[in-house]
Each structure stands twice: as structure tokens, then as C-alpha cells.
Amino acid sequence: LVLRLLAAHRTQVELRSLELAAAKIVVAAAVVREGKLLVQQRSYPMSLAGKWELPGGRVEPGETEVEALVRECHEEMGVVVRPLGRLGPDIPLPGVGLLRTHTAWLDAADVQPRAVEHRAVRWVAAAHLAGLDWVAADRVLVPALVALTEQV
Ligand code: 9L3
Ligand code: MG
Is the ipTM of this complex over 0.90? Predict the structure, then answer.
């Protein structure tokens, strides 16, 4: 019996380390221009449709976080961003991995992001950030996003 319990425990430990090894990074961009933060409204999956989030997505194998951030922003909004540095804590995404945020610069002042995959894209002032219907993970970032938006 003891041996069987030990074996069961070892299997659990092995499964746990597999889960950790598989933890995927999802990168998100915090882009501020003229005192407003760039946010997007999700169109899928159904459980997240209508909720607001920072633009971004999964880091693909062989890609750095910065490369993924630039690629995702280009795919999702047709704009080129310049990542600047990390913002706020890593946030667990249950069943997916970790959400990691980078601030980013949208250098062309005249370029307007378009909602390619999303329902809408919007520039939001600091005072209105807390009132958005955020995706749960992104809501954790609101204090850091308000501070960033007020400061830029
Ligand atoms: N996610 C949460 N907040 C964000 C982003 C960009 C992504 N700001 C979550 C939603 C999905 C997963 O990460 O569960 C992958 O994102 P995507 O590839 O569907 O954008
Ligand atoms: Mg995405």
C-alpha cells in the first residue's frame, strides 16, 4: 500500500511539472497616446465576447515576447508598436498560462488602429478605465494601467 501511495504521489508530481513546463506566456500591450489607453473588445470565444482587454496573444515557439507583441498588434490592429518594458504583475490565465504585459509605443501619430479580429478598438482616458467590462485577467492590471495613462 505504501508503495502504491508513493507511486501515485510521484505521478502527481510528474503531471504537475508537465503542467508547469507547458505554462504558456500570453503577451499584452499597454499603448498610451495623448493621455488615452488603447483597448480592444473581444469577439470570441463566447465566454469573453463583449469584454475589453489589452491587445496581444500567445508567444509562439521560437519567438521572443517582444516579437510576439509586435506580431499580435500588427495582426489584430494593422499597426506597428515598439515595446518599451514590462508593466505590472504576471497574471495567471487558468488553463492557458500567464498574461505578461509590456508597455509599447505607437510612434506614428496619424496611424489609427483598426479592429481586424476584434469587435471594437477604443482609446480610453484614465478616469474611464475602471468602468470598462474587462476580461478578468486584465482587470487586475487596472491600477497599473491608470497610473501609466495618467503619467504619459
Ligand atoms: N488573454 C487575456 N487578456 C489579454 C489577452 C491578449 C489574452 N489581454 C487570454 C484570452 C485567451 C488567451 O489569453 O484565453 C489567448 O489570447 P488570444 O490569442 O485569444 O488573444
Ligand atoms: Mg489576441
Answer: yes
